[in-house]
Specification:
CATH superfamily: Gcn5-related N-acetyltransferase (GNAT)
Distance between the termini: 29 Å
Strand content: 25-35%
Radius of gyration: 17 Å
Organism: Paenibacillus hemerocallicola
InterPro entries: AcuA, Acyl_CoA_acyltransferase, GNAT_dom
CATH class: Alpha Beta
Low-confidence stretches: none
Pfam family, one: Acetyltransf_1
Helix content: 25-40%
Number of strands: 9
CATH architecture: 3-Layer(aba) Sandwich
Largest sheet: 9 strands, mixed
Number of helices: 6
Order of helices and strands: EEHEHEEEHEHEHEH
Number of domains: 1
Shape: globular
Keywords: Transferase
GO molecular function, one term: acetoin dehydrogenase (NAD+) activity
Length: 210
């Protein structure tokens, strides 16, 4: 199984500064950068920085980030699903999770999430993978104009659709526990039918729901 990591970068002008969207970023480069203090949605910024480095060291792991100078102001993670989760059951080498997406508050007005995700899919580097993301409303940063769960859900769907991820049904209890939660998936054009069928058996534990 080939893990295609093809580095790309893109400059963005923001408030008189030049931000750089780049990735997949190698571990040594990640270690040389610092985290913006607002990047604390999942854990403390320093601890999250360590986690990003660890993901970048994985054969399948990839970190796409935006930096302002040497400060990380946004990131997206890709990795195999956690072994404690349903999605790891099939031990699929071509099933990749789009995990965390986070952008520092002051940088949220220019669509960095979309730019980072789109950069991850450049040059067909994920066409041999099924990429999925699980969206849970309790992980969402519900404030400001997106304080409504359904508005945030629409925003996340629009973001994922920018790379052709679509809503998929599942009987996973956590996703089914609230109607705003969802599973979104992109099946690369090189993924074999056998992998698609295996993913279907993971999505549905109860056959009558197919």
């Amino acid at each position: 199984m080939e893990h295609r990591k093809r580095y790309h970068s893109k400059e963005i002008e923001f408030e008189g500064k030049t931000l750089l969207v780049e990735g997949p970023v190698p571990p040594d480069h990640l270690r040389s950068l610092g985290m913006h203090p607002d990047l604390d949605a999942f854990r403390r910024p320093n601890e999250q920085h360590v986690a990003l480095v660890e993901i970048s060291e994985l054969p399948e792991g990839r970190i796409i980030l935006t930096r302002d100078g040497s400060t990380i102001v946004g990131y997206v993670t890709f990795h195999y699903p956690d072994e404690m989760e349903r999605w790891s059951e099939g031990n699929m080498i071509d099933l990749l999770e789009l995990g965390a997406i986070e952008v520092a508050d002051d940088y949220r007005s220019i669509g960095l999430g979309k730019k980072m995700i789109q950069l991850a899919f450049l040059e067909e580097q994920l066409e041999n993978m099924i990429v999925f993301t699980t969206e849970y409303y309790w992980h969402w940063d519900l404030k400001g104009s997106l304080s409504n769960v359904w508005d945030y859900r629409k925003m996340m769907e629009k973001l994922m659709k920018s790379v052709d991820m679509v809503w998929f049904a599942t009987d996973d209890p956590e996703i089914c526990s609230h109607p705003a939660n969802c599973l979104m998936v992109r099946i690369g054009k090189e993924v074999p039918l056998s992998s698609v069928e295996k993913f279907d058996t993971i999505r549905f534990h109860q056959r009558f729901m197919y």
